[in-house]
């Protein structure tokens, strides 16, 4: 190891000698306190200060990187806060609309959140966070601020299952609000409901509002169902095809109300007995 170090010194002996002489000169200058040396020191200090000032505009890479990381974390936190505030605002608007619906209505309502939702089946349902402990019973209508959603089909103490309008097993007595034409709302798949049993001669126009009728045993009259999208006579038939766009956007549905409306059991028994 010593021999190797000696070989390196011999190889760079000129540089070693120059470095030694420079260090010795600097050391001797620091010990010298003459007027000439003091002038040289002042000039050296001024020169170093000017050089530092000249290069001070060049940013420190590591400081910039650290500052950038801090700003990115702050931006992420602010974005998250903005997102939560926006979500809270939208939820507040939805709940205010639901509360206005509740204040206008004749019946009592139970507010509920949707815990699960099926929209890709022929028998689409929703799971709600209310049940028999909340006085929710089968056959009670489900509504939102936009209109009719469906009805309750089963309950437990704390949960319930709702049958959506987008369910091929659900039938709703309905009518055209403008012309008072009656029919039955069904769903056969796709984005539209169908208003059945409408005669070719009945007055039905696109844009007509469809509501629940007084002939329904399970739904109060006057609940918005949707708007007529198109109507045209069926070939070789006495009826016409009426497609209805639902008033409720089921894909965005999150909060609903269960209407505490119970059908008249004696009426249902009488109608079933005489069919």
The overall strand count is: 12
Between the first and last Cα atoms, what is the distance in angstroms?
Answer: 112 Å
Per the principal axes of the C-alpha atoms, what is the gross shape?
rod-shaped
- Structural class by SSE content: alpha+beta
CATH topology name of one domain: Thrombin, subunit H
Name of the CATH architecture of one domain: Beta Barrel
Calculate Rg over CA atoms: 41 Å
CATH C-level of one domain: Mainly Beta
Strand order of the largest sheet: 1-2-5-4-3-12
Mean pLDDT: 82
Q: Helical element count?
A: 5
Order of helices and strands: HHHHEEEEEEEEEEEEH
Low-confidence stretches: none
How would a crystallographer describe the biggest sheet?
6 strands, antiparallel, barrel
- CATH superfamily of one domain, please? Rod shape-determining protein MreC, domain 2
- How much of the residues is beta strand, in percent? 25-35%
Estimate the helix proportion, in percent: 25-40%
Structure, described:
This protein is an alpha+beta fold and 275 residues long. Among the domains are: 2-51, no CATH class; 172-248, Thrombin, subunit H (Beta Barrel), CATH 2.40.10.350. It has helices spanning 2-11, 13-31, 35-55, 61-104, 265-273, and strands at residues 109-117, 123-128, 141-143, 148-155, 160-167, 172-176, 182-186, 193-196, 209-212, 224-233, 240-246, 255-259. The strands form 2 sheets. A 6-stranded antiparallel beta barrel has the order 1-2-5-4-3-12. A 6-stranded antiparallel barrel has the order 6-7-8-11-10-9. Strand 4 (148-155) and strand 5 form a beta hairpin. The longest helix has 44 residues, at 61-104. The termini are far apart.
């Amino acid at each position: 190891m010593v021999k190797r170090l000696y070989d390196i010194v011999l190889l760079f002996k000129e540089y070693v000698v120059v470095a030694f002489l420079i260090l010795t000169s600097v050391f001797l200058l620091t010990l010298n306190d003459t007027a000439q040396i003091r002038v040289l020191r002042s000039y050296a200090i001024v020169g170093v200060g000017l050089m530092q000032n000249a290069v001070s505009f060049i940013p420190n890479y590591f400081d910039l990187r650290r500052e950038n990381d801090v700003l990115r974390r702050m931006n992420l936190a602010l974005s998250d806060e903005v997102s939560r505030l926006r979500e809270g605002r939208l939820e507040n608007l939805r709940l205010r609309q639901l509360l206005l619906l509740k204040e206008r209505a004749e019946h009592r309502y139970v507010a509920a959140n949707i815990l699960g939702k099926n929209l890709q089946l022929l028998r689409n349902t929703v799971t709600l966070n209310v049940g028999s402990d909340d006085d929710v019973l089968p056959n009670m209508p489900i509504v939102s601020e936009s209109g009719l959603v469906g009805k309750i089909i089963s309950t437990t103490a704390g949960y319930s299952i709702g049958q959506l309008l987008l369910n091929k097993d659900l039938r709703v007595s309905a009518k055209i609000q403008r012309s008072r034409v009656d029919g039955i709302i069904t769903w056969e798949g796709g984005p539209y409901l169908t208003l059945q049993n409408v005669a070719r001669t009945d007055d039905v126009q696109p844009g007509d509002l469809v509501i629940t009728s007084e002939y329904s045993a399970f739904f109060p009259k006057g609940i918005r169902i949707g708007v007529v999208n198109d109507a045209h006579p069926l070939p070789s038939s006495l009826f016409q095809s009426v497609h209805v766009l639902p008033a409720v956007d089921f894909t965005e549905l999150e909060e609903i109300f269960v209407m505490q409306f119970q059908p008249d059991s004696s009426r249902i028994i009488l109608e079933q007995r005489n069919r």
